[in-house]
Amino acid sequence: MNWLLVILGGAVGAPLRYLTDRAVQARHDSVFPWGTFVVNAAGSLVLGAVAGASVSSHTYALLGTGLCGALTTYSTFSYETLRLAERGWPFLAVANVAASLLVGLGSVFLGLELARALTA
Amino acid sequence: MTRGPGAGPGEEAEAIDPDVDLHVPVQRAETEGAHKWPVLAAISVGGALGATGRYGASLLWPTPGGAFPWAVFWVNVVGCGLIGVLMVLVSEGGRSAPPLLRPFLGVGVLGGFTTFSTYALDFSDLLEREEAGTALAYAGGTVVAALGAVWLTASAARAALKRAAAR
């Protein structure tokens, strides 16, 4: 059962990342990868909330492992950082790593605390 | 902020963001009209496969609470290594590939396989268990290993293509 829920979550999460990335880029003409940054931060916030709400293992498989897992990405983040550094924007590469870590880790904390406060 | 990566003279616009980069005309057109359904379907199937692979890895190598999350660490490092090769083959140097290959393998499979949110959650869980040393080693180690992997594989793939072209 959990396998099916992970498949379903992943099947929704990945295209959602692609469409969100496009929507963010369409509003911002910049080489900084804002789209990936936004999905990683948003996915971390939601995963924090899902974990903080102590949901059932089925719900976690669907929303946590499947949806948030596929919505967020490390491979995209690493390749775009490499490209920024190679194409002459080393400062943006460093900024991308620093901002993604700070905001991603901060979002998970925020999601956890919000869900705990609301479900307490 | 600086405009577009389609920079210097004689330089084709090349993707910075491997999921989709609207500076690359072919990728910008990817969702026009009926094109978008096969693209979204390829990403969706790829994402399901990638997420399943990651879930399988986490069941094969479960992480006890408070321990270094090796399964997600290796999933992320391997996924970053693979995208380095993939992007060199399908997008760099003006090379083109079947139109659904990048959406399926890059956006779907590798994007769904690797994860940032689980990485962030595992880090916060280690901190809450007062395993600050492990938390910092995990956070920093993943960044260094993931960036090292993508740099290494992309460099190796470029060198291999160059050798093949010189032959």
Secondary-structure element string of chain A: HHHHH
Encode the helix/strand succession of chain B as letters: HHHHHH
Relative helix content of chain A: over 70%
Strand % of chain A is: under 5%
What is the assembly state of the chains in this entry?
Answer: heterodimer
- Count of individual helical segments of chain A: 5
Tell me roughly what share of residues is in helical segments of chain B: 55-70%
Gyration radius of chain B (Cα, Å) is 18 Å
* Unreliable residue stretches of chain B: 1-11
Explained architecture:
The complex is a heterodimer of chains A (120) and B (167). Chain A has five helices and no strands. By secondary structure, chain A is mainly alpha-helical. Chain A has one domain. In chain A, α4 runs antiparallel to α5. The longest helix of chain A has 30 residues, at 90-119. Chain B is globular. Chain B is built from six helices and no strands. Chain B is mainly α. Residues 1-11 of chain B have low confidence and may be disordered. The chains are: A mainly alpha (120), B mainly alpha (167). At the A-B interface, α1, α2, α3, α4 and α5 of A face α2, α3, α4, α5 and α6 of B.
Give a topology summary.
The complex is a heterodimer of chains A (120) and B (167).
Chain A: H1 2-26, H2 34-52, H3 57-71, H4 75-86, H5 90-119
Helix pairs in contact in A: 1-2, 1-3, 2-3, 2-5, 4-5
Chain B: H1 25-28, H2 36-60, H3 70-90, H4 101-113, H5 117-128, H6 132-166
Helix pairs in contact in B: 2-4, 3-4, 3-6, 5-6
What labels would you give this structure?
heterodimer; A: 120 residues; 5 helices; B: 167 residues; mainly alpha; 6 helices
Gist of the model:
In chain A, about 85% of the residues lie in helices and about 0% in strands. Chain A has helices at about 1-25, 35-50, 55-70, 75-85, 90-120.
